[in-house]
What we know:
The complex is a heterodimer.
Chain A lengths: L28 E2 L3 H6 L3 E5 L2 E6 L3 H10 L1 E5 L4 E6 L3 H8 L12 E7 L5 E11 L2 E6 L4 H11 L6 E4 L5 E6 L3 H7 L3 E3 L9 H7 L5 E6 L2 E6 L8 E6 L4 H12 L4 E3 L2 H10 L35 H6 L7 E6 L11 E3 L7 E10 L6 E7 L9 E6 L2 E8 L10
Parallel strand pairs in A: 1-3, 4-15
Antiparallel strand pairs in A: 2-3, 4-10, 5-8, 5-9, 6-7, 7-8, 10-14, 11-12, 12-13, 13-14, 16-19, 16-21, 17-18, 17-20, 18-19, 20-21
Helix pairs in contact in A: 2-8, 5-6
Chain B lengths: L7 E2 L4 E6 L2 E6 L1 H7 L2 E5 L6 E2 L4 E7 L3 E5 L3 E7 L1 H5 L3 H4 L8 E7 L6 H9 L1
Antiparallel strand pairs in B: 1-2, 2-3, 3-9, 4-6, 5-8, 6-7, 8-9
Amino acid sequence: MTEGEFLTARVHTRDPQYPLRPGELVTDRYSPLNRIHVDAGASFTDFAGWQMPVRYSSDLAEHHAVRTAAGIFDLSHMGEIFIVGPEAADALDYALAGKLSATTVGQAKYSLLLDRTGGIIDDVVVYRTGDDRFMVVANASNREVVAAELTDRTAPFECEVFDESDELALIAVQGPRSREILVATDGFAIEGGHPDGRDVAEKLGELKYYRALPGSFRTQPVLIARTGYTGEDGFELYVSPGHAEELWNALTEAGAPLGLVPAGLASRDTLRLEAGMPLYGHELGTETFPVQAGLGRVVATATKGDFVGREAVESGPAPDARTLVGLVADGKRAARADYEVFASDDSTEAIGVVTSGALSPTLGIPIAMAYVDASFAAPDTVVSIDIRGKRLSYRVTPLPFYRAKKD
Amino acid sequence: MATESELQYTSEHEWVLVEGTTATVGITAYAAEKLGDVVFVDLPDVGTTLASGAIVGEIESTKSVGELFAPVDGTVLEKNSAVEDTPELVNSDPLGEGWLIKIEFTELPPLLSFDEYTALLGE
């Protein structure tokens, strides 16, 4: 895949066939799959200015489908920024927290864009798509700042930065039957493999987690990545916006008999929460050091030279800084983001704050992630959360809450 | 079960069925749809005195928390224990089996007609 192959710009303006929905603004942005979602009866939510499906019919059913069979998600709102040039790897080593120069072609790596004070501007997945090229996938809300920071930080290096977000749609198929579904979908071929796609099953079977393969779908280039944000096996498919509908329809037709359902952002949020995966704006932000979020391993202080934020992360947060923990409770009453955490039911001085919480659809108990004072972070520590005026005991538990069974 | 047009409504997306001095209360299909899958319902106990406009219960979905406002002054006659055990009734049948509480009311404030409520949703 080269940056040029996706330069078939599609402007995501609204489809005149559909009237404005209540509360919708004319400045809202639309996925190239918007028409499919509207026709499927999706409810929409504003996500960083994008009108995206929050659910199609039932967020619980969509969640369970991903855990037991598969779900298909439209993630076209996410940002894709390419760094291309002979010094692209060195440039990213300086710009990001991880050692991207240590990746091999076809590898993906979870990384962080830090600011000079050690705070997290965004969390990203970086795909090495060639010796001299990388694709950085950013959260939709941070696309502009990530593109600007990468442009700025990589300026001294011999490389160029292209924000290709408008030139790429992203479709994720997630769940234990994902591979079967891709294999059952006619039209995929793997670059360098059989043009008729007879080796797709084998190649996808060999593709490891956090690896990507360049391929095609009916003549269109597709980057097939074994990545995701649900805690299940799955694939993320990067394709040009003009061909996203065709790919979505082919996948849903082939996948429906295998249990594939379209899934919205509501289920994506409960899935990632069960999997203990942080979400920018909840668990991650510029006030948070990576180590507080349990992401110290993502920062390559020992193995590479200077990078933005190095000095700050080396001095680290204050010794008593809060740390991210998992919390579980009995009953059905879920703590939500921003609820305060206390040492005990009768204590009135907060020792932490919830960043995400829900009644876990898979486990059937309330789960939450929270930042708590370091002295309350040990597993089995009992804390108290104020749930709209009623206190409920929660217990600290190691993350993740849910782990997919291996085959 | 009354039809949509026979019920009265509040601006808090509740429906009220008035029969004599009893008001049966639930949330509208619009509200249920906006909440998403309801997973927990907290209702006031029988005998609780309610003041119109006060928050008397909660309807939680995976994504959010909806508050139940008392649409009338009165006393709780009955709560729907089926909906406490099976919260998804609020989604599957919001105007029927998904009813929430019955109130013996002392004062019936002005409520919205179906047309007025529908107009409110259009805004």
